[in-house]
Amino acid sequence: MMRILITGGAGFIGSHLADALIRQGEDVTIIDDLSTGRMENIAHLTGHPQFHYAIETIGNETVMDRLVSECDIIYHLAAAVGVELIVTRPVEVIERNILGTEAVLKIANRYKKKVFIASTSEIYGKSETVPFREEDDRILGPTTKNRWSYSCSKAIDEFLGLAYWKEKKLPIVIGRFFNTIGPRQTGQYGMVVPRFVRQALLSQPLLVYGDGEQSRCFTSVTDVVRAVIDLMRHPGAVGEIFNIGGSEEITINGLAQRVIAVTQSKSKIRHIPYEEAYESGFEDMRRRVPDISRLAGLTGYRPQIPLDDILSRIAGDLKKNDPEVKESS
Q: Does 150 participate in catalysis according to the annotation?
């Protein structure tokens, strides 16, 4: 039995990762300050003999020192995420991402514990070289646009992780997530899929930002968690960066239509300008498509869950757990 520490373990991906590891017989401890994570995500695990949690910030060195010293490996998922948060609370995004990762790596190095660092497709900025490969150049907007602060903060996380590996031989694995979706994800911070599904279930207009022709590749959290665990168990992943995502590209207009069809909703699609949704001068990527050949070559990874199935699972979760949706059903 391995002893696992997950930072941000009460979050969307972190809670699914905890589920999967416990099913595989591991002993799991999570730490989360509930700034974006939720107790509801881990409520079903409380009381399980192989699950433990600390409601605390990863900046608390005393608590983190104890948790890291007692674990075998660390999955570092704690971060400030979501476009809405990036635009409205940029100081929090930058400080939480950079200082949080610095704190985790410093203590991990003290005990030489292997670390997975969760990064993001935002790393690629507004590059048009699709599909994105791990070694591609990054193209970003000016520092006057908050939009790009998240990309830069996660790039610093990657630089720092790789520096610890190269200089101090701390085993590091980095995964760049591409539009991970599934049950428990909230639309509170600008995540498009749970927002669309909720709007459809409530027979509200699905609000599409811009012209809706920007495209993404959505991936089930179940597939993503499987990839992350496989990478951490493969010695060849250490010191490397991996895109983790799906292969089916779809426009946001197409996504809205799929959501309406899957939920059998009478909702209509309404387009609104980015400036109305976020801030003046907001920039977005037109296409965000990963090259997952490095991940597939090492672990045999292939996305397994179709988009319509994921949307159905999200709808079922909202019908069960969202009070307003339950009332309207």
A: yes
Q: How far apart are CA 200 and CA 259, in angstroms?
A: 7
Q: pLDDT for 186-207, tens place per residue?
A: 877 668 999 999 999 999 999 9
- pTM for the predicted model, two decimal places: 0.94
pLDDT digits (tens, 9 = 90+) for 225-236: 999 999 999 999
Catalytic residue among 53, 75, 124, 150: 150
Q: What are the strands, taking DSSP E only, across the chain?
A: 3-7, 27-32, 51-55, 73-76, 114-120, 172-177, 180-181, 206-209, 215-217, 219-220, 240-244, 249-251, 269-272, 287-288
What are the structure tokens assigned to 302, written together?
A: 């292939």
User: How many angstroms from the chain centroid is the CA of residue 261?
Assistant: 26
Joined together, the tokens standing for residue 321 give: 């757990």
First to last CA, the chain: 43
Say if CB 170 and CB 115 are below 8 A apart.
yes
Domain 192-216+248-283+304-328, CATH number (from 3.90.226.10, 1.10.10.10, 3.30.980.10, 3.90.25.10): 3.90.25.10
Return the DSSP state at 42.
T
Write out the two tokens for 137. Answer: 């150049």
